[in-house]
Design a protein that fits this description.
Rossmann fold; 6-stranded parallel sheet; 8 helices; 16 strands; binds ribose-5-phosphate
Length: 290
């Protein structure tokens, strides 16, 4: 089946790399806004009977959702064979529980919505917190890819005597895997979130790792408070400057600038969200999943 790859705004680079690696056609679309702010969508390529791939990473999802919905509906109307959403970063995975009475469990609503207008979803390290699998909330087939091997490779090639540090118990599964692949020791900390902008991280026990370079690895860097707090502890413990690695460079507000002000010597992310910190390319992983 012929494949055609479309990019939603800010995904052009990744979409280009994917379509080149797949030897697929690059889809042409026009998306713009009417003066009143409504979205205009036009597909300029022939998609009849083709397998369509939409590359749309979903940080700041609210603005992206409606154009994505319109595009997907239109592609189906134009008789595309299948619409696959490649969302390297998948949003609305965190509110997966009603913590307080009356709260919306948005991860479920969002999953239902995406499942209603796509045929398949491919994503990287979604924040499955209290869920075990995407199929608990998504009704379309989902392929989940992990960046841990690429992260280990980057660490092996760039860090001398690394000590991998995971910020919370959830990270243990993949930090242990990444550490094994990088032939490095690892420790897992405990985290208590007090609010959107406040976290408490346990003091790391690092006495025996004084000659190592701390490598903080997390799936999402959002406010960066998790990393900033951990870096503070490591500095107090007399450790060398840390390397920070995040899969998804969400960097809310001025989080990146705040993180740069710390003693971190390097901040590296995967290109699941376009950002100046991108240093690990995940396009090959996506291509094999497609
Ligand atoms: C939370 O459980 C995640 O794994 C990350 O640790 C979290 O999203 C980081 O958030 P922030 O950068 O806002 O501290």
């Amino acid at each position: 089946m012929k494949k055609i790859v479309f990019a939603l705004s800010c995904n052009e680079l990744l979409a280009k790399s994917i379509s080149e690696k797949l030897s697929a056609e690059t889809g042409q679309i026009e998306i713009r806004y009417f003066p009143d702010g409504e979205t205009y969508v036009r597909v300029l390529s022939n998609v009849l009977g083709k397998d369509v791939i939409i590359v749309a990473t979903l940080h700041n999802p609210d603005d992206k959702l409606l154009p994505l919905y319109f595009l997907s509906k239109l592609l189906k109307e134009l008789k595309a064979n299948k619409v696959t959403l490649v969302a390297p970063y998948l949003a609305y995975m965190r509110q997966d529980k009603r913590f307080k009475e009356g709260e919306a469990v948005t991860s479920e609503y969002f999953a239902k919505l995406l499942s209603s207008f796509t045929d398949e979803i491919i994503t990287i390290d979604p924040h499955l917190h209290r869920r075990h699998s995407m199929s608990e909330i998504y009704t379309v087939p989902c392929k989940v890819i992990h960046a841990s091997e690429l992260i280990s490779k980057w660490i092996k090639e760039n860090v001398n005597q690394p000590l991998l540090i995971g910020p919370d118990s959830e990270s243990e599964q993949w930090i242990s895997e990444a550490a094994k692949n990088a032939n490095a020791p690892f420790i897992i900390l405990e985290k208590k979130r007090l609010g959107d902008n406040e976290v408490i991280i346990s003091i790391p026990q690092v006495e025996k790792y004084k000659n190592h370079t701390p490598v903080l690895v997390d799936d999402i860097i959002s406010t960066a408070h998790t990393m900033i707090e951990t870096i503070g502890h490591l500095k107090e413990a007399g450790m060398k400057s840390s390397v920070c690695i995040g899969v998804h460079a969400v960097f809310a507000g001025n989080a990146f600038e705040e993180l740069k002000k710390t003693s971190a010597k390097e901040i590296i992310t995967c290109n699941t969200i376009p950002h100046e910190s991108n240093g690990i390319d995940i396009s090959d992983l996506l291509v094999s999943a497609i």
